[in-house]
Write a structure and sequence with these properties.
The structure is a homodimer of 228-residue chains.
Chain A (H helix, E strand, L loop, with lengths): L33 H16 L6 H8 L13 H26 L5 H18 L1 H8 L10 H23 L9 H20 L12 H14 L6
Chain A binds a DNA duplex (30 and 30 nucleotides) through helix 2.
Chain lengths: 228, 228
DNA sequence: TCCTTATGTAATCAGTGATTACATAAGGAG
DNA sequence: CTCCTTATGTAATCACTGATTACATAAGGA
């Protein structure tokens, strides 16, 4: 029923002062916005120790509350991870949108490539967060409407760009746009996931993995273009 | 130092007879081959309840030994999962080799497609096992030389086939074979992983996901062939 | 002012991976 | 055959985890 107005500064707990201050100073029983605090704690936990090390209790500890407190805001650990994933997905989406905005004057295929580079770039720059938004083990895609919708939005953007490309004669014509979208998603997802899962160590050890991915993307896109 | 000969039937424990038989009948203190028993228990556990539900203790329980016993044979849970993964990888490899044997008389690209179909077919038929051999969360690829080597063998086979295809003029010539191998691996891995991770629900809900993947593979391969 | 509701805590449960000290069986050396 | 080392098992325990319950307090409207 309506958003809860943040109880502006009802007193954060973490104002130093360890081991019980002489003057009790009630110090606010309620946290203010534990939801954000816990999500933030979880994110820092992920960045420091990886997705496997995430624990509800440690997140609670970092937020300075009891281990049962998070359950007031998330029914279970999966729900917390979903919240983290949604936030990560937001950043990925923003990154893609920025790339598309920067290339708004270019041809569809160039913009499609920009989208791909933004996606791969984000995944390689934020491997653990990419892990969160992708592995089912951490968060059930189907259980989070928001995540599903954000995913779908990207897919639709890809479809739009490729349809434009087809109309402008940039795209090969012997494969349906839907098929190409699926193929391209698999390619990008696969490349990112292979990196995250440690399946790309033998490839040009000297070269940075991100650059490897980018040039693989370029080659892949070449196969989609209409022959000159 | 040398393989341990199986102590042939030194007395399995699971010969019914619950709750302590009247005549003690030592019944063999040593299990015989706990390693296999535990790996097998883990596999059945994975099949019944998924990769997330795997627990060393439950596997021990199913093998009829104490919860500390597995640690005599595996330094930790990851090592057990690695053993399971190696076995799964063996089956995947066998499936691919069978497909290649069946198509030994065909042209390189046709055999390359057979390899792809075998890979995707196996992944779609054994999603949880595919999960085990791929996600780093379950087993560290780099820590298991056997797994790495099996993976590398597939990669080499792909390279060989594509080089043959190039020599016979079946393959497009504007992209290096190594690049194509990487791209193809990403495509296949991505498709399989998307399925396993639940990222392929919206695509032709009527069609079976496996068929969807197969036709996506066919389209993808079309982009690799030299233009007629 | 009172009283409902949201939000926190402490205590507890069942389950996990891992380690330790101890017990027993196997199987070769003498 | 006997002894004794070593491989392999067990019970007990530790430090954790996710989750639930009963209880306490704060917020804020009627």
């Amino acid at each position: 029923m309506g958003e809860k107005k943040t109880v502006a500064e009802t007193g954060r707990r973490n104002d130093g002062d360890p081991a019980g201050s002489p003057r009790p100073r009630p110090r606010a029983y309620h946290h203010g916005n534990l939801v954000d605090a816990i999500v933030q704690a979880t994110i820092s936990l992920i960045e420091e120790r990886g997705t496997e090390a995430v624990s509800l209790r440690e997140a609670a500890r970092r937020a300075g509350v009891s281990s049962a407190a998070p359950f007031r805001h998330f029914p279970n650990k999966a729900a917390l991870m979903a919240a983290v994933a949604e936030q990560a997905m937001e950043r990925l989406t923003a990154s893609i949108e920025a790339a598309l905005a920067e290339t708004s004057s270019l041809a569809p295929m160039a913009r499609f490539e920009a989208l791909g580079r933004a996606y791969l770039g984000w995944a390689f720059d934020n491997p653990t967060h990419f892990q969160v938004i992708s592995s089912r083990a951490l968060v059930d895609l189907q259980a989070s409407p928001r995540l599903r919708q954000q995913n779908e939005a990207i897919r639709l953007t890809m479809t739009d760009l490729l349809e434009s490309a087809r109309r402008s004669g940039e795209l090969r014509t012997d494969i349906s746009v839907d098929q190409i979208v699926l193929s391209a998603r698999a390619f990008g997802y696969g490349l990112a996931r292979m990196h995250v899962d440690g399946h790309l160590p033998e490839w040009h050890p000297s070269e940075a993995p991100k650059e490897t991915a980018m040039s693989a993307l370029a080659s892949y896109l070449r196969t989609l273009r209409r022959e000159a």
